[in-house]
Every structure is written in structure tokens, then in C-alpha cells.
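Structure ticket #2291
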Amino acid sequence: MHHLALGYTKQLSVSVCVFGCRWKMIDKHKVLMLADPERIFEKGLETQNYSEALFNHEKALEIYESHSLSAYNHCHEKAVILQGIAYVHLLTENYELALVNYKNALTIGLTAPQIISTSNIIGLLYKNQFKNYSEALSYCEKALEMYENSLTHYTIAEILYNIGTVHHERKDYELAMFNYKKALSIQLTCLPVNHTGIANTYYRIGIVQQVLQNYCEALINYKKALSIKLKYLSSDDTDIADFYISVAITQSNKKIIFEH
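Resolution: structure written out below.
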């Protein structure tokens, strides 16, 4: 039976890490969503045939469930399949089913790093799709609490950044700033100075500083973000346009403040 279930997984090329599912954030800003399921089934996904991908995931899950296996390895396999099902639903924007399957995966057989990444994904779903900021914070903070002996500094920064965005959405700007700055301090120690993640954090800090009418600080952070983004994007990219707009608005506001 175990070999039959794995037949559905192996034909899909296992052990593929998933990064790069992007989410629309406020101000048209795109932020990389942390995701790290140990196994995602490529067949169907690589051709964007999501029905086929979902069929193979669910068939493997059906086999595992029909035999009521309880050993850790089998529970782990089942949890990873649930992550795969959730990911397909995420790709097809079926967010409620994505959330259900990610939460089910949390209850069985995941490793500590998988629990952390899945908690983070659930937190982002609650924030971005369901606007349930209390639940979003709960899951993101759970991921952060588990970090200390399990995650790299970069992952801590990602989680802190995500917590910052939740506070940002709630208009709790002081806490948003606190978490963004903590994320930035870690990013600056473990990432190349021109990494786009650092640019994203500078930009977010700039937004908060602008809201708080700290225009000089906002301008400094916007310009730092822009200088990094220009190394990776063409000058006519729409993201670059957003950065220029932010700089221009802040300069105007700064001028108005100092003229009065």
C-alpha cells in the first residue's frame, strides 16, 4: 500500500521546495511569501494543470487514509500531501480550502521547520485573504516562538517582517515599525547589502514613517529602497514607478512642513 501511495507522489517528482508564491500587499507592493513544504508534486503544476495535480495529491491521501496508518513516517507523508493539496488550492485562489489543508497538515507529522513555515503561511492567509488580523498574529507569532533553535536568521527576519505587515494593516504603526526595524537589523547581518528583501523592508519603513509624518526619515528609507531596486529592475518597471511616486509625495510633504 505504502508503495502504491508513493507511486502517486514519485511520478510527480518529489522533494521540490516551494518559494515564490507572491501576494499583493498594500501600495501595490509585492512581498515574497515564505513557504517550505518538503515535497510538492510537480506533474500537473509544471504545466499548470491544477486539476491533474490535485487529483494525484488527493489519490495519494486517499490511500494513506484508507489504511489508517499511524507510524510517524506515514503521518509525515500524509502531512506533506496535505501541504501539497493546500498549495494547489493556493495557486487556484481557493483560499478557504488552502487554509483548511494547511491547518490539517499542522496537526500531524510535520517537522519543526515545516510547522514554522506552515504557521507563517496560515498567518499570511488570515491577513491577506480573510483580514483576520488576530489569527494572523497568532500564527506568525507561533512561528517566531518556535524559531530559536530551528531557523536561520533570514527566516526570523521574514517572520518579523510578516508580523510587521499585520500590525501595519491594523494601523498599529509603532508595532509595525518595531518589527520592520528588527527584521531589517537581521537582514543587514545575513543578506547581501543589495538584496531585494532589504529593499522591501526599507520601503515598508518608509511608508510607516510617512504615515507618522516623519518625512525626512521616510525619504531616507524610500531612497535606500529605490537604489537597491534599480539594480534589479528596469527604470520603467511599474514597481520602480511606485517607488518614485512615494519619494515624490514625501518630498512634497516635507517641503510643505518646512515652509510652515
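Closing remark: Residues 1-44 have pLDDT under 50 and may be disordered.
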